[in-house]
Amino acid sequence: MPLVFPFDPDITRAATIPARLYNDPVYLELERERVFAHGWQLVARAEQLARSGDYVTAEVGVESIVIVRDGDALRGFHNVCLHRAGPVAQGCGRRQTLQCRYHGWTYSLAGGLLHAPEMEGVQNFRPDDMHLMPVAVAAWGPLVFANLDGKAPPLAEVLENIPHRVAPFHCESMRYVMRKEYELACNWKVYVDNYLEGYHVPVVHPGLHRELDYDHYRVEPHRYYSLQHAPLRPVPPVGGDRRYVPEANQVPQAFYVWIFPNIMLNIYMGQMQTNVVVPLAHDRTRVVFEWFATN
Length: 295
Ligand code: FES
Fold this sequence. Notes:
295 residues; alpha+beta; 7-stranded antiparallel β-sheet; 7 helices; binds FE2/S2 (inorganic) cluster
């Protein structure tokens, strides 16, 4: 079965990609290897990593990683001990070292091996040369991203002008409110496909359709991201059934940002909701929602 398929970049001749990209497990393995490992993944919130020693573990594809705050620096490592691959951190918290709970090897927040019990006399064992395997880490506003192979373009390049476009919403200063996770029986791209069009809004989301000026709903494709935006409908002076009424200091717009391949930012009315679409299997997907709001 060919891995490649014809693709016509002329949108007027757009066609659905082959079904096998959704229902054949081999494509998920390829996507993990060639897409997810090469790009930036949203893995933590900046407020979880505010103080030196704060750490957060995360999964990217089938890899486990740990992000730590080491003084002014954010660092990321594969969460894999150099001895026999035990995890060096669990969950999240604050520590001044990372310690594997299998045989107790201990690492600094910079990833260097500090202590390995009972290794005296072992030939060619040089702790000073031993470091946890790094992953790239970068932050934007309240969001922390990691890149497994360290070969992604800089995060600022991938975000392009998103920070400028969403600046009026002041996302950088929003605080974390809550998190929810959902599991769906579908390929992860089905969720993304749905997100990338507002075509379904009038039929599937009549409540949202009442809020948005659908005639001015626009989609802007960019190199690494897509922006969908629409103004909120004007509020009638009397009557109407509007749920959201912008306050004087709020931008009367809804922004839906998708960052390739699986990160979404929904921004409106003084709040931002992040969605991370996590493939669990070719036919199973977890979507992680986190809400942020202005103070
Ligand atoms: S596997 Fe980590 S100390 Fe042995």
